[in-house]
Amino acid sequence: MAFGNYKIKAGFGGERITDRNSATAFMLTLTTIYRKKPHWKLADQALRQASKSAAAESRASAAFKAAIEAEGWLEN
Questions:
Q1: Count of alpha carbons within 13 Å of 75, Cβ hemisphere only?
Q2: CA–CA distance, 60 with 40 (Å, rounded to integer)
Q3: What is the pLDDT of residues 31-74, one digit of tens each?
Q4: How many CA atoms lie within 13 A of 53 on its CB side?
Q5: pTM tops 0.90
Q6: First-to-last CA distance in the chain?
Q7: d(CA 17, CA 43)
Q8: What are the CA-CA distances from residue 33 to residues 30, 42, 68 (Å)?
Protein backbone atom coordinates (compact mmCIF):
# COMPACT_ATOMS: atom_id res chain seq x y z
CA MET A 1 0.00 0.00 0.00
CA ALA A 2 1.25 3.46 -0.81
CA PHE A 3 0.47 6.79 0.74
CA GLY A 4 1.58 10.00 -0.94
CA ASN A 5 4.68 11.96 -0.06
CA TYR A 6 3.47 15.43 0.86
CA LYS A 7 5.44 18.38 2.19
CA ILE A 8 3.52 20.86 4.34
CA LYS A 9 4.62 24.48 3.97
CA ALA A 10 6.96 25.68 6.71
CA GLY A 11 4.48 28.23 8.05
CA PHE A 12 2.04 25.41 8.79
CA GLY A 13 4.32 22.84 10.37
CA GLY A 14 6.86 22.12 7.63
CA GLU A 15 6.35 18.38 8.02
CA ARG A 16 6.76 15.67 5.43
CA ILE A 17 3.76 13.34 5.41
CA THR A 18 4.71 9.94 4.04
CA ASP A 19 2.16 7.55 5.53
CA ARG A 20 -1.28 7.41 7.09
CA ASN A 21 0.15 7.51 10.62
CA SER A 22 2.00 10.77 10.02
CA ALA A 23 -1.11 12.18 8.31
CA THR A 24 -3.23 11.25 11.32
CA ALA A 25 -0.66 12.74 13.70
CA PHE A 26 -0.63 15.96 11.67
CA MET A 27 -4.42 16.15 11.76
CA LEU A 28 -4.38 15.79 15.55
CA THR A 29 -2.35 19.01 15.75
CA LEU A 30 -5.06 20.98 13.94
CA THR A 31 -7.36 23.20 15.94
CA THR A 32 -11.07 22.45 16.12
CA ILE A 33 -11.79 25.25 13.65
CA TYR A 34 -9.85 23.39 10.97
CA ARG A 35 -11.05 19.90 11.91
CA LYS A 36 -14.67 21.01 11.50
CA LYS A 37 -14.14 21.95 7.85
CA PRO A 38 -15.68 19.47 5.40
CA HIS A 39 -12.41 18.60 3.66
CA TRP A 40 -10.74 17.70 6.97
CA LYS A 41 -13.76 15.67 8.07
CA LEU A 42 -13.55 13.72 4.82
CA ALA A 43 -9.81 13.19 5.23
CA ASP A 44 -10.35 12.00 8.81
CA GLN A 45 -13.00 9.50 7.73
CA ALA A 46 -10.81 8.22 4.92
CA LEU A 47 -7.77 7.85 7.19
CA ARG A 48 -9.82 5.84 9.68
CA GLN A 49 -10.65 3.38 6.89
CA ALA A 50 -7.20 3.38 5.26
CA SER A 51 -5.96 0.17 6.85
CA LYS A 52 -8.74 -1.91 5.28
CA SER A 53 -7.30 -2.16 1.76
CA ALA A 54 -4.89 -0.65 -0.72
CA ALA A 55 -7.79 1.13 -2.40
CA ALA A 56 -8.89 2.60 0.94
CA GLU A 57 -5.36 3.84 1.61
CA SER A 58 -5.25 5.41 -1.85
CA ARG A 59 -8.55 7.19 -1.15
CA ALA A 60 -7.20 8.40 2.20
CA SER A 61 -4.09 9.75 0.53
CA ALA A 62 -6.18 11.60 -2.06
CA ALA A 63 -8.52 13.01 0.62
CA PHE A 64 -5.59 14.19 2.74
CA LYS A 65 -3.91 15.80 -0.27
CA ALA A 66 -7.16 17.55 -1.20
CA ALA A 67 -7.48 18.89 2.35
CA ILE A 68 -3.97 20.33 2.48
CA GLU A 69 -4.42 21.77 -1.02
CA ALA A 70 -7.72 23.37 0.01
CA GLU A 71 -5.88 25.14 2.85
CA GLY A 72 -3.01 26.14 0.56
CA TRP A 73 -0.54 24.20 2.73
CA LEU A 74 0.91 21.85 0.12
CA GLU A 75 4.47 22.79 -0.79
CA ASN A 76 5.26 22.26 -4.46
A1: 13
A2: 11
A3: 999 999 999 999 999 999 999 999 999 999 999 999 999 999 99
A4: 3
A5: yes
A6: 23
A7: 14
A8: 8, 15, 15
